[in-house]
Amino acid sequence: MSAQDRLARARCLLLTFCPFYGHIALRMSWSASDMGWLPVERRTLGVRFLDSTQVECLCYPPFVEQLTGAELCTVIQHEIEHVVRLHCVRGRGLQPEAFNVAADICVNGEQHRPRIGFVPPGATQPVIPFPDRLLWVPPGWPPDESAEYYYRRLLQTSPAERLALGEGRGLDDHSVWDRSRVSREEARQLVSSFVREANAAAPGCVPGHLVEAIAALGRVRVRWSDLLRQFLGRHLGSRRRTWSRVHRRHDAFGVPGWSRRAACSVNVIVDTSGSVSSALLGQFFAEIDRIAHWARVAVLQWDHAFQGYGPYRPGDWRRWPVRGRGGTDMAAPFDWLVRQRCLADAQILLTDGQCFWPARQNFPLITVIAARPGSVPGPGWGSVAYLLEPA
Q1: Would the pTM of this model clear 0.85, i.e. be above it?
Q2: Which of 168, 214, 267, 359 is most buried by its number of CB atoms within 10 A?
Q3: Top CATH class, 224-386
Q4: Which helix (H) or strand (E) holds 286?
Q5: Which pLDDT score is estimated for 259?
Q6: CA 330/CA 351 separation, integer angstroms
Q7: What phi, psi does 115 have (nearest 5°)?
Q8: Are 380 and 363 in contact (CB under 8 A)?
Q9: Within a 13 Å sphere around the CA of 320, how many CA atoms are in the beta-carbon half?
Q10: Per-domain residue ranges for the chain?
């Protein structure tokens, strides 16, 4: 049986006997990899966020082929725990080795009371592959803390003590976490959708030790304005080469410099309908002003009909006339942009969500909704950010 067939069978087992893990496993992609960046003995599995819509698990076929079906289920559980807890993006800026140990301790729990472990039909004990290779909560440490707690505690131990706890060991490869090209907020939104679908398909099947981690997915910690800048920086870039500025390191003739001014073009569609308050419009234009410092911005005002379109420069908010204040149709402005051939590198929609949504289009879109997460579903495509904190 091939490695891919074994993985498919293990996912089916989880779907039958541990449906929460099984449904999330079905949402992930599973790709064979030679993991050539690692020594052979450390080539196992590794999970990462490919983008804001997909989670990928890289699998080393010889490792998969040596596991039983139950052992493979336990390894898949381990990977899904890292995904649900957002470990792939939470360790940025921290010492990698220490955070890797902390994340595995958090996922695995105590050796005599493990958080992971597939229990085959008819059995009473979980099947744990390579128990001596796994990293467990050390004796005397609290068993139900976060990876950050264990990370801080590890930093208080000596290098020799960390080595004794298992630094350098582990069941999977965490180096692929650095290849996750999404922000923490995008990862949170994606995993939240995984969890919602798993809960809808198998109500009441969430493992008890994941309840707090899942609740944390609903607590937004990233400001919507930060998400806007992350989105634009990743999709469009934030600098361009220019001959009008001297290169900092090479001032020889003919070497262009770099400019962060006007690196990309952005259309900002502002909902000016009557349901949008003046205070909210003020917040919208404050963010537009910040974006205009490093992008070419054009503002399209729309309520039930076209209310104006033109370039926006920093400071224009002082004299920018707001028009409209009638009904709401946020599908129409996108049709207008297409007909007028005015599409930019990215489109941003600022609205209170009480509107008709645009049909899916083949261009980058981020929608900022002045509502609490989950209260308004959004257009169903592109990236969505919410202006208000959860209730």
Answers
A1: no
A2: 267
A3: alpha beta
A4: helix 278-291
A5: 47
A6: 8
A7: -85, -25
A8: no
A9: 26
A10: 3-217, 224-386
